[in-house]
Amino acid sequence: MRAHHHAEASLGCASAIPLTLLDTSNAVGWTSLLLNNQEGSGETGIFETCATEDLSLTVAGSPEVSEFLQGRWRSAVFQPGVACLMPAGETARVRLDAATTRERYRTVHVYLPGSLVSDVIDEYRRIGQPIATVRISALAFRDEVLAGQVAALLSAIRSGAPDLYAASAANWMVTHLLSRQAEWHHISDEPRLCPTITDRRLSRVIEFISCHLHLPLTLDELAREAGISVHHFGRRFRERTGMGPAAYVTELRMERARLLLDTTDLPLALIAARCGYPRPSAFSTAFLRQAGMTPSAYRTRRKGSRNRDIVRDPC
């Protein structure tokens, strides 16, 4: 994934919020995201947030937050673990109000690059097709794991951690927010499926097969992972791997079978089940066709070969 940088406009967001700036990641040279830690007390009065191409995340202390957006005011009390999200390019009228005029509170504002959001969406979608617009907006939602990550980022700023730390955190935070606050659109939900398999999608299909060899696998499932119609999948898969999907699955199952026969004393019925064959007889037939001998004969031959090697070894 390419490098991403927060928007230049985000650098002016701290001054738009009538709170004192205590810490900023800009001071330690981070560019993969921008984090501002700000402090205030009492009521701020109404102010307008700053427009930026970044996704804005705010984790606050305990003030009541009122937001005027899309023609109406909404209010929420921020408690530990509660955050809010502002979509890229949008602004809102906001008011922060503490329980008492003397109560001090802090708000941490994180600006995540819009380009990173687009790339993560694309990572989970079919390559080569337009990226759908995913709007992420929430006045208040509880996510203590996310709040913990923001606290860790603040500590990293104070300890002088490098931008690599910020880049890794930004990627995780965007992925986490999209999975929790936006609806993932699976590649198979597209009305038009691209009739090609890219390297990334091929790797995904192979990984899916490898992780599910013990289960029945259908063309529909494999085509879904590839982001391609069933009509095109078999031909395109053969073009990329040199064999059809069924033959490829069988090849991987036989590789696993040989590994289990070589390295374990598991019963043949259990090995068959782990290789996707509910009936041991079907497993024996498939193994015989691929290896030229039955699983039991293969195991006996391999054990005999190992024993001969031990005898010949003078050590």
Q: What proportion of the residues form beta strands (DSSP E)?
A: 15-25%
From the N-terminal CA to the C-terminal CA, the straight-line distance is: 51 Å
Question: How much helicity do the residues have?
Answer: 40-55%
Overall strand count: 10
Short description:
The protein has 315 residues and is α+β, with helices and mostly antiparallel strands. It has helices at residues 13-16, 114-123, 144-159, 163-181, 199-211, 219-226, 230-241, 245-263, 268-274, 280-291, 295-312, and strands at 20-24, 34-41, 47-48, 55-60, 64-69, 72-77, 82-86, 93-97, 104-112, 138-142.
Topology:
Blueprint: H1 13-16, E1 20-24, E2 34-41, E3 47-48, E4 55-60, E5 64-69, E6 72-77, E7 82-86, E8 93-97, E9 104-112, H2 114-123, E10 138-142, H3 144-159, H4 163-181, H5 199-211, H6 219-226, H7 230-241, H8 245-263, H9 268-274, H10 280-291, H11 295-312
Helix pairs in contact: 2-4, 3-4, 5-6, 8-10, 8-11, 9-10
Give your account of this protein's structure.
- With 315 residues, the chain is of the alpha+beta class.
- The chain is built from 11 helices and 10 strands.
- It has helices at 13-16, 114-123, 144-159, 163-181, 199-211, 219-226, 230-241, 245-263, 268-274, 280-291, 295-312; strands at 20-24, 34-41, 47-48, 55-60, 64-69, 72-77, 82-86, 93-97, 104-112, 138-142.
- α8 packs across α10 and α9 crosses α10 (280-291).
- It is elongated and about 85 Å long.
